[in-house]
Design brief:
Blueprint (H helix, E strand, L loop, with lengths): L3 E8 L3 E3 L20 H6 L3 E5 H9 L10 E4 L12 E4 L3 H11 L4 E5 L1 H9 L5 E7 L7 E2 L9 E8 L5 E7 L2
Parallel strand pairs: 1-6, 1-7, 3-4, 3-6, 4-5
Antiparallel strand pairs: 2-8, 7-10, 9-10
Length: 175
């Protein structure tokens, strides 16, 4: 079974989206030649898991950014599917959802977001690693990445700073 890896950016004060649910505050970090290891990371995962709000936001970005990689969307709603996308919808406990993912794709699974999915994974002790990009921005309010009252012991495995001001922190679940 592969690892379940949260690979995500947050503001310095812990938000993954602003008060309106937007992520335009990340735009300054997406220009230029630096991809922050994204292409290498994406090439190493066999599956993608995200919540419905994250999925709808990805659809608003334009063309499907994950061709060739199956994506599971945790939702109870019927949602559109782009023509070039391998999207599957799932509901229920995360243990069941991840069992389905791992049956089809035994390699690493990228947890794209959002906060509700992350909270459920932490609550059910199903998150193996975190690659967290911290942006030097204070949003003040918005969608907080990590839920309150959830415990997860982590071990720092690496850190890197970028010229843009982003800091990459890599963690794995502590033994």
């Amino acid at each position: 079974m592969g690892r379940r890896i949260l690979y995500i950016a947050q503001s310095l004060d812990g938000f993954i989206a602003d008060a309106e649910g937007g992520v335009s505050w990340l735009d300054p970090y997406q220009s230029g030649d630096e991809d922050y290891g994204y292409a290498e990371f994406l090439a190493g995962v066999e599956a993608i898991l995200m919540g419905s709000r994250t999925y709808l936001q990805v659809l608003d970005f334009g063309s499907w950014p994950y061709p060739g990689t199956p994506a599971w969307v945790v939702t109870h709603r019927e949602l559109p599917v782009p023509a070039a996308a391998d999207v599957r919808f799932a509901a229920g406990p995360m243990t069941d959802v991840l069992r389905d993912v791992q049956e089809d794709t035994p390699g690493d699974c990228w947890i794209v977001g959002g906060a509700e999915v992350v909270g459920q994974l932490i609550a059910e002790d199903l998150l193996d690693a975190i690659v967290l990009f911290v942006a030097p921005v204070l949003l003040g309010s918005g969608v907080r990445l990590f839920p309150a009252n959830r415990d997860l012991a982590l071990e720092l495995t690496g850190a890197r700073t970028y010229q843009s001001g982003l800091v990459e922190l890599r963690y794995r679940r502590a033994c």
